[in-house]
Design a protein that fits this description.
505 residues, alpha/beta, 60s Ribosomal Protein L30, Chain: A, fumarase, 3 domains, 5-stranded mixed beta barrel, 4-stranded mixed beta sheet
């Protein structure tokens, strides 16, 4: 009988979570690099370049790939010949590992988990508890698969109870465009088919633990219906032209994973969960010989590339920006921002709206300023700020008109598309929405030269900061006329693909 000490599980979980915060799986890096090499869309190519540059920087600096260091999911396959040397339950041991990882002083990870979700929504401060799934299996080892999944991609999860005669491929083709770009493509789609609703969701999540191997499958050919579906769905989704960060292009997904299970004759449950450009998962096996530590990949696995600054790049100082300046910016244009910007997410926006409704003065003036939707990681060592990538902008849509018309904002910076109401508010106020790349948080943080909390310090990472930035890369996503590249880009590239001008792989 194998004896697993509680320290072995705790230490292995903590090490794996620290590891995946900094290191992309090598198969993911290689897949993005291959897509980057063949991508004809400049906007999508630049976005993938930032993801690859960020990935290499994080591996070198041992800092988080994304500021959203995720909620932890753990799958345990426990051999029936294993005994744990502990008085505590396994959930407590796993959560102790999570706690140790997220509070590590040399690489602080952002705690995003809130208790009392329908009430006070109070941060647990250490990212516990994890979501834990356990199975008893034959054997004398403990197999552990874990992932840290960000809210942007989790929020785009879909579940449908289809009729048995319905076409899964058609449902996916119809559903993926409704997900927008908040899940930060290019990534993977995990799909669960069959079982019951909760079983389908579980299979979709677990399938994302598998390595990227769609091109090997294409070369050898499908041997069953599930493999045929993977290839069909890969082609179908990429033919939508959504592209990296939703900007339009050839590569929306890098792989499609499917798990299935027998289901009721009257049912066809289908679940779909995307994995974002901050793909983070690890696998290890405990066999009674102590903790398992992850081995860092060679930097040779990370391509050395640079962003294309040869054309269409404009340097902008946001201090004292005017309406006429903003009107000169074109949709899809790359800007390098310098100057002072403010930050704010959901909680800060809600506070400011409530204050304005009560006729109170805001703690910091928004007039003529840009606000960046971000909740940064705490800095370590000599950092000004920790990884500071954008959060999903649509969550701030309901606040946008008031922030523009009452608070006097000049513009906003975030991730992915804006909804119709926000776009109309931007158009009415001749404002602008700029997009930073999701999945390039450490790269963005290098542009921050000074950071100071200026309001709501009790909100932690959701406090309002003032950042002084230098050459922060963004793209014009919605211009002052309401023209959105997240609408026009995919339409253009979908048409090009349909006309067979370009080949989708």
């Amino acid at each position: 009988m194998t004896v697993i000490k509680e320290h072995d599980l705790i230490e292995s979980v903590a090490d794996a979570l620290q590891f995946i915060s900094c290191y992309h799986p090598v198969d993911f890096v290689q897949a993005v690099h291959e897509a980057w090499k063949t991508e004809p869309s400049k906007a999508a190519k630049d976005a993938m370049a930032q993801i690859l540059i960020n990935s290499r920087m994080c591996a070198m600096g041992k800092r988080p790939i994304c500021q959203d260091t995720g909620m932890v999911t753990v799958f345990l396959k426990i051999g029936m010949n294993v005994r744990f040397e502990t008085d505590r339950c396994l959930e407590d041991l796993v959560n102790e590992g999570v706690r140790k990882a997220y509070t590590h002083p040399e690489n602080v990870l952002r705690a995003s988990v809130l208790e009392d979700p329908a009430g006070a929504r109070k941060n647990t401060k250490d990212n516990t508890p994890a979501v834990i799934h356990m199975r008893l299996v034959p054997g004398d080892t403990v197999e552990v698969e874990l992932a840290a999944k960000g809210g942007g991609s989790e929020n785009k999860s879909k579940l449908a109870m289809l009729n048995p005669s319905d076409d899964v491929v058609e449902w996916v083709k119809k559903t993926v465009p409704t997900m927008g770009a908040g899940w930060c493509p290019p990534g993977m789609l995990g799909i669960g088919i069959g079982g019951s609703p909760e079983k389908a969701m579980l299979m979709a999540k677990e399938s994302l633990m598998d390595p990227i191997d769609i091109h090997e499958l294409r070369e050898r050919g499908a041997s069953n219906r599930v493999e045929e579906l993977r290839l069909e769905l890969m082609d179908a989704v990429n033919s939508l032209g959504i592209g990296a960060q939703g900007l339009g292009g050839l590569t929306t997904v890098l792989d499609v994973k499917i798990k299935d299970y027998p289901t009721h004759a009257a049912s066809l449950p289908v679940a779909m969960i995307p994995n974002c450009a901050a793909t983070r998962h690890a696998h290890f096996t405990l066999d009674g010989n102590g903790p398992v530590y992850q081995e860092a990949p060679s930097l040779d696995n990370y391509p050395e590339i640079a962003m294309d600054m040869s054309e269409g790049v404009r340097k902008v100082n946001v201090d004292g920006i005017t309406k006429e300046d903003i009107k000169s910016w074109k949709p899809g244009e790359t800007l390098l921002l310098s100057g002072k910007i403010l930050t704010g997410r959901d909680a800060a926006h809600k506070r400011m709206i409530d204050m304005m409704d009560r006729g109170e003065e805001l703690p910091v003036s928004m007039k003529g300023r840009f606000i960046y939707y971000v909740g940064p990681v705490d800095p370590v060592r000599d950092e000004i700020v920790g990884p500071a990538g954008p959060t999903t902008a649509t969550r701030m849509d309901k606040f946008t008109r008031a922030m523009l018309e009452e608070a006097g904002l000049a513009g906003m910076i975030g991730k992915a598309e804006r909804g119709p109401a926000a776009i109309q508010a931007i158009k009415d106020n001749e404002s602008v929405y700029l997009m930073a790349v999701g999945g390039a948080a450490y790269l963005v943080s290098q542009a921050v030269k000074r950071a100071e909390v200026v309001a709501f310090p009790e909100l932690g990472m959701e406090a309002i900061y003032e950042f002084e930035v230098e050459d922060m890369p963004v793209a014009v996503a919605v211009d002052h006329t309401g023209d959105s590249v997240h609408h026009t880009g995919p339409q253009i590239w979908k048409q090009k693909i349909e006309e067979q001008v370009l080949e989708v792989k």
